[in-house]
């Protein structure tokens, strides 16, 4: 379950000093590598996921060369919903950020489109399913398995944070296994470039840092908090703060009491506690040493970070897929009705549909 309520105007003046990013995202080249393709070049093959704001479809490029990848994941967001749910800025930030970042543990964005109904983001299809599915199936992961996944996420966050990008929606549903069993971070719907702090309440209740709940202004530290929640959830099988209602969850997060099952070892507790420090200035990842402190934590002893980033380590779970089109690792959701995606299914194609007058297209200029 996701909440997203705009609270305070994000562009409010900020009291504390802005931190300059190590590198500027504006300087990165836009890496939309598949040029000259159109929405009407694709057939819809299945539904991979549905979220709060849209859906993700498995699509096939009809006349691609043999031997080239022709399956993609296409995120489809209905423009009127984006506007109604006040997500215009978030969707544009998702497109802006994903088209410029490039990392082995982040999903690749190839192209974006819009027509009068929807905006579309064409991504690499990550066939192994959500880490969520694999975790629920296994009930919990051993520390070694957890370390592999967490280490890749730490590298992805370190990379994103170097641009002052905060991700803000870390959770096993947004982590996908690729064919080699490596994670790919997807869903940049809440990602934002923040030089200091921002005040939008967004994310998923179980993963929210106390400062987000308290509307205290949040930044990169909130991602490190979420790492603590993720680490606990992988080792234990459920998140550290849970309740039937978001309100109950928030209460538990603010109280800060963590129940430790007996099987969890001392060093793992130490790491999780270091991430789940309510005091941001003492939270692992957010102190003077930055992300390097995380890499140097004894829990990660023995991890060859460079080899990991070069994807030279064997992953713990290799998802089985019979063909490139195999969707067994995803929920089997029905295809969306054709009239929701006419530009992908027929009537809308080759017609004037794509050029139809659209009073809100100006809100999505980059697409
Ligand atoms: N590139 C991808 N390959 C395969 N499945 C994907 C991909 N991107 C997203 N999905 C699936 O679709 C779901 C919803 O996509 P997401 O971007 O997280 O949307 P939302 O913002 O609605 O949560 C994901 O949780 C995942 O299961
Ligand atoms: Mg998501």
Automatic annotation (TrEMBL):
It catalyses: L-threonyl-[protein] + ATP = O-phospho-L-threonyl-[protein] + ADP + H(+); L-seryl-[protein] + ATP = O-phospho-L-seryl-[protein] + ADP + H(+). The keyword Kinase applies. Gene3D superfamilies: Phosphorylase Kinase, domain 1, Transferase(Phosphotransferase) domain 1. InterPro entries: AGC-kinase_C, Kinase-like_dom_sf, Prot_kinase_dom, Protein_kinase_ATP_BS, Ser/Thr_kinase_AS. GO terms for molecular function: ATP binding; cAMP-dependent protein kinase activity. It is an enzyme of class 2 (transferase). Keywords: ATP-binding, Kinase, Nucleotide-binding, Serine/threonine-protein kinase, Transferase. Its EC number is 2.7.11.11. The keyword Transit peptide does not apply. One of its GO terms (cellular component) is cAMP-dependent protein kinase complex. Belongs to the protein kinase superfamily. This is cAMP-dependent protein kinase. It comes from Crepidotus variabilis. The lineage of its organism: Eukaryota, Fungi, Dikarya, Basidiomycota, Agaricomycotina.
């Amino acid at each position: 379950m996701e909440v997203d309520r705009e609270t305070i105007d994000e562009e409010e003046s900020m009291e504390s000093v802005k931190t300059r990013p190590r590198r500027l995202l504006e300087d990165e080249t836009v890496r939309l590598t598949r040029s000259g393709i159109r929405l009407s070049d694709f057939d819809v093959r299945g539904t991979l996921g549905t979220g709060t704001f849209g859906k993700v479809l498995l699509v096939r490029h009809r006349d691609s060369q043999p031997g080239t990848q022709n399956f993609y994941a296409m995120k489809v967001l209905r423009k009127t919903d984006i506007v109604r749910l006040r997500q215009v800025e978030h969707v544009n930030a998702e497109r802006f950020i994903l088209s410029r970042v490039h990392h082995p543990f982040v999903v690749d964005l190839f192209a974006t489109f819009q027509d009068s109904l929807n905006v579309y983001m064409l991504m690499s299809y990550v066939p192994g399913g959500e880490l969520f599915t694999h975790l629920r199936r296994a009930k919990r992961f051993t520390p070694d398995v957890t370390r592999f996944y967490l280490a890749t996420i730490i590298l992805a966050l370190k990379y994103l944070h170097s641009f002052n990008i905060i991700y803000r929606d870390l959770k096993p549903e947004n982590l996908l296994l690729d064919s080699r069993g490596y994670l790919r971070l997807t869903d940049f719907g809440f990602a934002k470039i923040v030089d200091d702090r921002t005040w939008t309440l967004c994310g998923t209740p179980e993963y929210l840092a106390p400062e987000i709940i308290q509307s205290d202004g949040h930044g990169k530290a909130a991602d490190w908090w979420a790492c603590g929640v993720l680490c606990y959830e992988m080792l234990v099988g459920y998140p550290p703060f849970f309740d039937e209602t978001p309100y109950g969850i928030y209460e538990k997060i603010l109280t800060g009491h963590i129940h430790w099952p007996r099987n969890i070892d001392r060093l793992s507790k130490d790491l999780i506690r270091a991430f789940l420090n309510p005091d941001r200035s003492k939270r692992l990842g957010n102190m003077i040493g930055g992300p390097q402190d995380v890499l140097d934590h004894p829990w990660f002893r023995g991890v060859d970070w460079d080899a990991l980033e070069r994807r030279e380590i064997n992953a713990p779970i290799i998802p089985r897929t019979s063909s490139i089109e195999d969707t067994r690792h995803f929920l089997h959701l029905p295809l969306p009705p054709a009239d929701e995606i006419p530009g992908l299914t027929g009537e809308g194609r080759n017609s004037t549909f794509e050029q139809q007058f659209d009073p809100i297209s100006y809100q999505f200029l980059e697409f």
